[in-house]
């Protein structure tokens, strides 16, 4: 993402102009733009003109529109791929789409004020954002994260089963399923069945190799690991085939990448959600300990272990986590970026204040991306959890809160009587 222009005063008022360049930038914009914000971006509009003779000429023109946002929708190939499996080795369009709907609030010669329009945000086109409720610390930190150069896919992963494979790219904020293949493999039975089985396997490996070349950027310097993951021993067969085929084709770049970055990891099932197991594996965590998505996986794993061994130090749910924060007990806050997209501004402010309070009391706040498997698992736990620095009994804390509320009520009643 490129920062084109930024003016935000000390009260949070102002605007930021950004230029998205890839799928991850679209995800950042999705997290930045909320209902009520003002967004200016290029749009294509069909315009009709009537000539003097009465004929109607219709043409599409590009113009800039400014909308007051009513709805923001993000979709990626990853989401579609979860619902359907592709057998087409040529692959599909794997780019993310971001659509912003709202009313036009700046006069334009081709579009009336107040008219509804939907902006399809495009890569390498500037987007100007002015926030209705001002730029808070979470939004500004998101901008800073987005404009850091050198981002991109850090892990390429092939999640395999017998006859199936999903090709994934993991970057700082996203897990994208870029392609899927499925080749039926008949069971190895009699001699005739054995022959059919071998033929199907050969076809599967060939399709997989071609898809690997297209969908895993093995030549990229920034790619830290190429993971072959599967139950059983499929991963070994796949790795060996890709290595042998690279040798036959004299592809030295691929051979070097596999030797330096290739990692074979056992997972419990041949599904993309098993990537959480991959990120927790010692081989991967050692290589990726500095990356955000690896840190998310390790933090979530630490929370689950704490929940199992010392539940008084592992709390989840908005009410309980806020109570723990009020007592300065949070060592690590786990919070999903989904909570910051709340349509109610007050809800967002509450979570922003929570993150700032945890940091002020010396705690750490890890904001999970809901485009990673670990973020989706956290969302199943209400989207918020905390590892405490010291044990607290929820029942005791709630009883103390109730007593404090009763005390305040009594004080108010006394004040009212004295005032009367």
Summarize the structure.
This protein has 420 residues and is an alpha+beta fold.
Structural account:
There is one protein chain. The protein is built from 13 helices and 16 strands. It is of the alpha+beta class and 420 residues long. Strand 1 (2-8) and strand 2 (14-19) form a beta hairpin. It is flat. The termini are far apart. The model is unreliable at 78-94 (pLDDT under 50).
List the helices and strands and how they pair.
Layout: E1 2-8, E2 14-19, H1 23-32, E3 38-50, E4 56-75, H2 77-83, E5 97-104, E6 116-121, E7 127-130, H3 137-146, E8 155-161, E9 164-170, E10 175-182, H4 191-215, E11 225-230, H5 234-248, H6 252-261, E12 262-266, H7 275-280, H8 282-287, H9 292-309, E13 314-316, H10 318-326, E14 330-336, H11 345-360, E15 364-368, H12 373-380, E16 384-388, H13 394-419
Parallel strand pairs: 8-11, 11-12, 14-15
Antiparallel strand pairs: 1-2, 2-7, 3-4, 3-7, 4-5, 5-6, 8-9, 9-10, 13-16, 14-16
Helix pairs in contact: 1-3, 5-6, 9-12
């Amino acid at each position: 993402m490129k920062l084109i222009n930024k003016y935000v005063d000390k009260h949070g008022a102002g605007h930021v102009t950004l230029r998205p360049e890839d799928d991850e930038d679209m995800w950042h914009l999705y997290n930045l733009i909320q209902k009520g914000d003002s967004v200016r971006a290029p749009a294509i509009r069909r315009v009709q003109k009537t000539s003097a003779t009465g004929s109607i000429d219709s043409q599409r023109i590009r113009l800039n529109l400014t909308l007051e946002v009513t709805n923001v929708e993000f979709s990626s190939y990853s989401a579609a791929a979860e619902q359907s499996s592709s057998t087409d080795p040529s692959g599909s369009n794997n780019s993310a789409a971001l659509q912003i709907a709202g009313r036009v609030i700046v006069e334009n010669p081709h579009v009336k004020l107040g008219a509804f329009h939907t902006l399809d945000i495009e890569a390498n086109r500037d987007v100007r954002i002015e926030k209705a409720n001002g730029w808070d610390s979470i939004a500004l930190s998101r901008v800073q994260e987005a404009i850091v150069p050198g981002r991109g896919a850090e892990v390429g992963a092939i999640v395999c089963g017998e006859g199936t494979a999903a090709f994934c790219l993991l970057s700082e904020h996203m897990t994208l399923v870029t392609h899927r293949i499925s080749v039926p493999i008949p069971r190895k039975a009699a001699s005739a069945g054995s022959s059919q089985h071998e033929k199907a396997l050969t076809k599967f490996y060939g399709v997989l190799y071609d898809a690997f070349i297209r969908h895993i950027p093995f030549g990229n310097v920034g790619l830290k690991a190429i993971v072959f993951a599967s139950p059983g021993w499929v991963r070994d067969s796949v790795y060996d085939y890709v290595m042998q085929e690279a040798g036959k084709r004299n592809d030295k770049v691929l051979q070097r990448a596999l030797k330096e970055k290739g990692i074979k990891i056992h997972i419990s099932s041949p599904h993309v959600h098993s990537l959480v197991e991959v990120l927790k594996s010692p081989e991967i965590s050692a290589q990726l300990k500095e990356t955000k998505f690896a840190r998310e996986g390790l933090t979530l794993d630490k929370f689950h272990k704490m929940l199992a061994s010392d539940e008084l130090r592992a709390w989840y749910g908005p009410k309980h986590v806020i109570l723990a924060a009020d007592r300065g007990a949070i060592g690590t806050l786990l919070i999903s970026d989904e909570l910051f997209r709340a349509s109610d501004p007050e809800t967002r402010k509450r979570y922003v204040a929570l993150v700032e309070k945890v940091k002020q009391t010396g705690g750490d706040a890890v904001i999970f991306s809901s485009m990673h498997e670990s973020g989706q698992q956290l969302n199943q736990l209400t989207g918020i959890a905390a590892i405490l620095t010291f044990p607290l009994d929820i029942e005791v804390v709630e009883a103390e809160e109730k007593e404090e509320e009763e005390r305040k009520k009594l004080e108010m009643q006394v004040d009212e009587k004295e005032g009367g």
